[in-house]
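chain below, 280 aa
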Amino acid sequence: MVGAPRSGTKMLRDLLRLHPCNTGGSYEVERVWCHGNHSRFGMTLSPSDLTPASRNYIRSYFYKASARRHGKRLVDKNVHNSMRIAYIHAIFPNSPIIHIVRDGRDVVCSLREIWQSTVDYSYIIKTRSFPIREIPFFVKRQLKWKLEKVLTGKKHVKWWGPKFDDMEELINSLTLIEICSIQWKRCTEAAYKGLAMLKPECSIQVKYEDVVMKPAETMEMIYDFLKLQITDHLRNRISEYVNAASVGRWQRALSLDDVELIMPNIYRTLLDLGYVKQES
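prediction:
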């Protein structure tokens, strides 16, 4: 499953795992996807970045993870993979891809908070949102981010989520909310371009808003794509899980100045997705 950060990928992964035929981890295995390309951690990757060794390692990791769950279908979500469609398709050519999109204005609200937030270690430990073997890497990254915030005097980390080759330039020249809008735009458009190169039956796109406002109907469409049956019991569980309170949140959370800053970056993408109407 792919999607820009804060577009509902975690929610959709959890909904998919409600089905008895699906399973999956509760954390993103970015270091697995970047095996052999750790210098590109969080960044774009293409089939040319794959070596036989890295491809075999990644495939082996997921096959073993699936085998530990008695052959169930493994649901993986990684927001960085929205920029790597051809790369992941080259590794798993027969795996279906679900692309979730969300109103970029709502995404920007959430992204800005994440960039500015402090780490809730108690929540991470309670939910076990990453494996124990990743603790040294996690601690090192958090300490680096804290040091950068102190040295720069900024209220946000230097980098969170998908990273671009010109990220340094963006951070030095733009406001945080502009960076968040570009992050959403590039991830969303990269996923579109990548999926357009695949056969139509390889992927499906859903909107976050449809998932939370028409959960049973939308998930039934996704399950049908995955060739899975949905029961009345599962429909009820799905409907109880979602919450539509965040739809349109940008109208309350963004100032007029914020909107004026981000719209030049995201208007065309919002228009293509049907979130805004053509300006006359």
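Residues 120-130 have pLDDT under 50 and may be disordered. The beta strands are 22-23, 73-74, 97-101, 203-207.
thats it, cya
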